[in-house]
Design brief:
34% helix; 13 helices; 2 domains; single chain; 410 residues; 6-stranded parallel beta sheet; alpha/beta; 15% strand; Rossmann fold
């Protein structure tokens, strides 16, 4: 889901076999895509993830393969839910591909196998929602084997789900020659480039609610980054660790001890850890709340911190402008509420305007960029929030680990 003219082919690190290495002419290829998109009735509201899968699908069609696609959509809990059918996705994908996309009558089974077996080269079939099957999230071996019966080759292009060891992301790879799709490969290369060969200085902007969600990433970047800028509600765990009052602000109590440990490690690190120096407060988490400036980190009783203040936003924007590489994951405040969107907007604009390489870790950061109309103004916007964090933290992603190693092929 990339990129503007600033998008560069950075090397990063990727040691798995690519779909470009697979011999697929005359074969059926099962492609795990990430079509978990927002719907309004039978219409797709945001098709960015569908668009991101098109290059891999087109590559396979051009190489003479028939394509069987699968994805989850929402959380149907292992039951068939007509409101979470893949039909709207198929309709939008057909428009993007310029060809008919059939929707299978189910996820697996004899009838689905018959439809898949009848595909001609270049034809596309989309299975029903994989999470209609309880065996999907359980990585049930029987369900994984049933998926494998639908094809000759497997391609994982669902980076946003690669951190989950599910049947369609990991289990099926035990039964078929398994390759990385073009999107998944690019995602891994782009994100690991932040760790392996960033242009200096490397500025890392981290927001969100919980220190516990980001502790591994913070620790990793204290070792590799030049500056780590903290925003969002998790800053209040840091303030509490420093002895400041936080009023009614959202505070992750178990995050206070973690924050104190981070502050101690930062003192011994060559990386500069920056916390907000001013805030924007409100009496409630509401678009109707009156924004009130706070000149320091203290939050009085009856008030809650809902955004970084203008002084902090300007300082963070300056750090971003001076950077050679920027990694951003997590908003600076309640950007979905207009009175408290300014801090996140300032950071988003700085990320969009800098000449640095800018890697954005998806999730709420991507939503913020889209809200401000800046999602095409960064070097790389990841399709996977959780997956991108786990990757830069250094964790192994099951959906990537299950693939053939580089140099192997079917």
């Amino acid at each position: 889901m990339a990129a503007s003219e600033k998008a560069l082919e950075r090397k990063g690190s990727f040691e798995k076999a690519s779909v470009r290495d697979a011999r697929v002419s005359g074969k059926r290829v099962l492609v795990r895509a990430d079509f978990n998109v927002p719907l309004s009735g039978d219409l797709v509201i945001d098709d960015a993830r569908i668009q991101a899968a098109v290059p891999t699908i087109e590559h396979l069609r051009d190489e003479g393969a028939s394509v069987v696609l699968c994805s989850h959509l929402g959380r149907p809990g292992g039951e068939h839910d007509p409101d979470l059918s893949m039909a709207p996705v198929a309709a939008r994908l057909a428009e993007l591909l310029g060809t008919f996309v059939a929707v299978a009558p189910d996820v697996v089974g004899d009838e689905v196998e018959a439809v898949a077996a009848g595909l001609d080269a270049g034809e596309v079939l989309l299975l029903e929602n994989t999470r209609f099957e309880p065996g999907e999230t359980e990585n049930d071996p029987d369900f994984a084997e049933a998926l494998a019966h639908l094809a000759d080759v497997y391609v994982n292009d669902a980076f946003g789900a690669a951190h989950r060891a599910h049947a369609s992301t990991a289990g099926v790879a035990a039964h078929l020659p398994a390759y990385a799709g073009l999107l998944l490969e690019r995602e891994v290369r782009e994100l690991t480039s932040v760790l392996t060969e960033p242009e200096r200085p490397l500025a890392v902007v981290l927001g969100g609610a919980k220190v516990s969600d980001k502790i591994g990433v913070i620790d990793r970047f204290l070792e590799t980054a030049d500056k780590v800028l903290i925003g969002g509600a998790m800053c209040f765990s840091f303030f509490r660790a420093q002895g400041h009052e936080t009023g009614d602000s959202l505070v992750e109590e178990e995050g206070i001890k973690l924050a104190a440990e981070v502050l101690e490690r930062a003192e011994k690190s060559d990386c500069e850890l920056l916390l907000p120096t001013d805030l924007v407060l409100g009496e409630s988490f509401s678009a109707e709340a009156e924004p009130t400036a706070s000149e320091g980190p203290e939050v009085p009783d009856g008030m809650m911190g809902l955004d970084i203040g203008p002084e902090t936003a300007a300082a963070y924007a300056e750090a971003i402008a001076d950077a050679g590489t920027v990694f951003w994951n997590g908003p600076m405040g309640a950007f979905e509420l207009e009175p408290f969107a300014a801090g996140t907007r300032t950071v988003a604009e700085a990320v969009a305007e800098t000449s640095a390489t800018t890697i954005v870790g998806g999730g709420d950061s991507g939503a913020a960029l889209a809200q401000f109309g800046l999602d095409d103004q960064v070097s790389w916007l990841s399709t996977g929030g959780g997956a991108s964090l786990e990757l830069v933290e250094g964790k192994e992603l099951p959906g990537v680990a299950a693939l053939l190693d580089e140099g192997q092929s079917s």
